[in-house]
Protein: Signal recognition particle 54 kDa protein
Amino acid sequence: MVLEELGGRIARAISQIEKETIIDDKVFNECLNEIARALFQSDVKVEFVNNMKNNIKNIVNLHTIAVGHNKRTIIRQLCKMLDSGKPSFTPKKGKTSVVMVVGLQGSGKTTTCSKYAYYYQKKGWKPAVVCADTYRAGAFDQLKQNADKAKIPIYGCNTEIDPVKIAVDGVDKFKKDNHDLIIVDTAGRHIQEKSETAASLFEEMCQVAEATNPDLVVFVMDSRNGQAAFNQAKAFKQSVAVGSVIVTKMDGHAKGGCVLSAVAATKSPVIFIGTGEHMDELEVFDVKPFVSRLLG
Ligand code: GDP
Structure:
């Protein structure tokens, strides 16, 4: 279900309740069930939706509270689901921050690294990118192509096979050159297959984190990964200290529910959403406007 459709259904369920002269348990439950159905179909985890339903039921008192208040309660619960409860680390201009980017292969991690750097460059920062993906052939060239286009300095090597060495050398170099934002791209992981390769890539990710001591680890998540996204995000969070999430491919037929899954699985805020393949197609993510947009 596309984002607008999800929003439309939730909004309709709420406005249906507003039309009723008497709001009893039956009417209210039907409203909540419709919201729950919309969320399920948008790939939000079952337990998660049930929690939300129970929370709303506990808060709303049908007999004493005005309809407008109930609507606000439902919207507040939706906002709460999208709020990790703790703000993301935000880099400070003029002070060096190291941001490590992790995610499944194909999630849009490499593209997001250059978009993220470009976003800050446009604001007058001095970002730089390090390619610590020595696993996928062509990873360095891909990042370099994007970085070169935006004139963002890049560190990497096609012949060095140790990602930890590249990451450490790159971060050191850019620190010396007074870059205020150093973004480290890492190799994509496949966690579906419990193979040795997957395990060693996870291990390598932890070593890169340990060696570079990033201020922030960003988990990049593909919005098209459906119900699987929750467990994928959780697996990353368990291995490395994920501090925030960027959800990619929110253009086209993206499902809004994955944003809720990302927050729930990582207990971290979504800071940006990717809305296309181009460099400038990265939007700051803010909970309240997102929910307002959902509800039309
Ligand atoms: P990585 O393997 O995680 O580094 O993924 P890539 O950065 O190579 O991206 C995989 C594909 O997704 C590429 O074709 C990108 O152009 C595309 N992609 C990345 N972000 C977005 C996005 O926000 N929207 C769309 N439509 N495509 C994206």
Q: What stands out?
A: The longest strand covers residues 97-103. The longest helix spans residues 3-19. The mean pLDDT is 84.
